[in-house]
Amino acid sequence: MEVLRQVDLQIADGEFLVLVGPSGCGKSTLLRLLAGLEAPTGGEIFVGDRCVTGLRPAQRDVAMVFQSYALYPHLNVADNIGFGLRRQGRRSAAQQLQDSLHRASRGLPKPLRIPSSRERRIEARIQEVAATLELDHLLDRLPKELSGGQKQRVALGRAIARQPAVFLMDEPLSNLDAKLRTGTRAQIVELQRRLGTTTVYVTHDQVEAMTMGHRIAVLNRGHLQQLGTPTELYQWPSNLFVAQFIGSPPMNLLPVRSAGQGQLQLGSRRFMPEGPIAEALLQWQARGGSEELNGGLRAEHLQLAPATNRNLPAEVCHVEGLGNEQLLTARLLEGDHLVQLRAEPDQALVPGQSVHLEVDPLGWRLFDQAGEAIPRPEPATPPGREPVLPALS
Q1: For residue 217, what are the contacts with CB-CB under 8 A and spacing of at least 6?
Q2: Which residues of 321-349 are buried (b: 16+ CB within 10 A; e: fewer)?
Q3: Which of 67, 160, 267, 389 lies 20 to 30 angstroms, CA to CA, from 347?
């Protein structure tokens, strides 16, 4: 069974790339292919300039952090962190014996300890990583004595200790509660920024994707739907799938018609989009594009407003108080379409109440009947300058 189809990704050195998509779309499979845990039926995988397609996982210079932590229950925190280090490089039988004796004699008085320069370097590295992740007071504990957040940090520490070229993370925070997930998320971002290690991170959580990644790759049914910065995906989705998948709440979709001279018609009302989408619509009309379109509006591009001829009459269906704002679901009286929008927290709104909605002319996004976004004008790039990856904020 073919899981991934024609996925072509180039990840910059030091980049934090997030893979998102619904369950079964191929996110984890792609990560396992990069790690060498699955073999591709076609194509090639490179780490830097080195083709690693036919190499075993240990030879790829990548480290994977699993959703289930995958800690060794019989090893303490220190030995779990150092596990990968102790399996790097070939050792003679004599060296293996000396290393084992060194570890066995660690609890003896100093004159009785067996020296091992290799083990001393590993122990120094374990201490360094443990201090970075605030695990230095837990080094003697077994995994069963740790909380979920502590186990996750140990799994991260084991990956960091090896200093790989690439970190691969498969939904590492999904087993944590909401508060712990937020704190650990910030810690991973800060750690990646400090280490500068290229990271590929799989998640189904939009908040993680939007707040952690330099860029986001959206997958669906094995196909790459869009690759771009969080802002690009949110503001300029390439198709209806991305428009509905990225953003919470998802983009409102309304059936509109291209009415000529850069106008859109929704029911009996006409709208004049502004900004880049206005130019895109004019170009679409000039090329003789289909009149039937899907108009997309984010929740923030609809606002409660006075009753005027251009505003849309609607009825409030549901009010969701979120503390800092209210999320409203309203039904347009003309066309019976449901839309969602944001309102100030102190506005008195109840289901059944009549309201009017104003459309932000800059907010329109347009999609053809096949679900693809109508082409927008390419942003001008100064001569001799290439786009630069945004810094994590």
Answers
A1: 9, 17, 18, 19, 20, 224, 226, 227
A2: eeeeebbbbbebeeeebebbbbbeeeeeb
A3: 267
300 to 29, 250, 336: CA distances (angstroms): 35, 11, 20
Map residue 382 onto helix, strand or coil: coil
Residue 164 token pair = 């790989």
Q: Which residues contact 377 (CB under 8 A, 6 or more apart)?
A: 276, 279, 280, 283
CA dist., res. 149 & res. 128, Å (int): 19
Structure tokens at 66: 């699993």
DSSP 252: E
With b for 16 or more beta-carbon neighbours within 10 A and e for fewer, the 122-138 pattern comes to: bbebbeebbebbebeeb
pTM greater than the 0.70 cutoff: yes
Domain boundaries, the chain: 16-231, 249-367
CATH number assigned to the domain covering 249-367: 2.40.50.140
Residue with tokens 């709208």: 271
- Please give the Cα distance from 108 to 104 (Å, whole number): 9
Residue 376, token pair as written in the block: 């927008």
Predicted confidence at residue 379, as pLDDT, reads 63
Q: pLDDT (tens digit, 9 = 90+) per residue, 272-318?
A: 999 999 999 999 999 998 999 999 999 999 999 998 888 999 999 99
